[in-house]
Amino acid sequence: MDQATIDRLSEAWLPAGALGAAAAIVLVVVLHRPAAGDWPIVGAVVLGVAAGSDDPPTAIVAGLGAATAVELAGRRLGRRPVDRLGRAGVAVVLALVIVGVETVAIPVLVAGAIVATAAIDELDAARPGLFPLLLVVSIAGIWATLPDTEEATAALGGAIVIALLSLRARLRADRLGTVVALAAIVIVIGLGGAARDGAIVGSTIALASVAGAPAAARWTGRQPSGAAVVAVHLVVVAIATRVGGLRADALGATAIGGAALLAGVAALVFLTRLADRRRVTT
Q1: What's the CA gap between 245 and 256, in Å, rounded?
Q2: What digits encode the pLDDT tens for the residues 21-47?
């Protein structure tokens, strides 16, 4: 293990993660919501990211506040899926602009957030409690590939606590929680990956890879097993971030990460059909 890896591991104990954890615990325990979704997830990720910044995190708070306002206001305008995807895109763009993320890859970030938003609803409805675990894997990959890990470390701390709590409290990813938490993660990617386009692309694919299970379920008409989803997600995120994300060019990172994502969906389809055949023969 080299010194750079050791330094990054030591950063995982920053107080930022603890702040996100405290927000989640308080909101779950005090509010007594057995299927709490919105604010525990938003609190752990967003407050952790904000506290993980050396500078006053006013821009981050303002950006995520704007994303929250867009999502809340949009609920009165329409409830169709396309309406929600449009709101998610607007919310993420607004958050990125307010925070001051300067990268030509903003369309990539927005596309990744929209894909993840569309997938998380299906994933959470089919397998409650699985999304927080996949989120931890995605953020861990993001943390491992971004040149600047300041905010990513804080997001990882909050996400780990969310995953642990979901084992007991069954945290659910509902509409507001999904959009605002994804906006926070996209901000993390935009701020931390500004020095390398490949890192932004690889990290965005790691976030969007939560769509693998819903895509496979639509193809086969059956839900893949939870163990298969987690295993495939780990492999896709690792390739997208630690292979594609380490490239300097966005095109190479897109080719590698995109191929990994498609291969992951194909693997889930294969494993689901294999399980069906075994079930029939027994």
Answers
A1: 9
A2: 555 555 555 554 444 445 555 555 666
Tokens found for residue 77: 């305008």
Give the angle subtended at the CA of 154 by the CAs of 111 and 101, to the nearest 5°.
Answer: 40
Q: DSSP state, 225?
A: P
Can you tell me the distance from the alpha carbon of 18 to that of 95, in angstroms, rounded to the nearest whole number?
Answer: 24
* CA pair distance 50, 182, nearest whole angstrom: 14
Helix and strand numbers, DSSP H then E, in the chain: 14, 0
**48-73 confidence digits (pLDDT tens):** 666 666 555 678 878 888 888 888 78
Local confidence band at 102 (pLDDT 50, 70, 90 cut-offs): confident
Q: Is the CB of residue 66 less than 8 Å from the CB of residue 95? A: yes
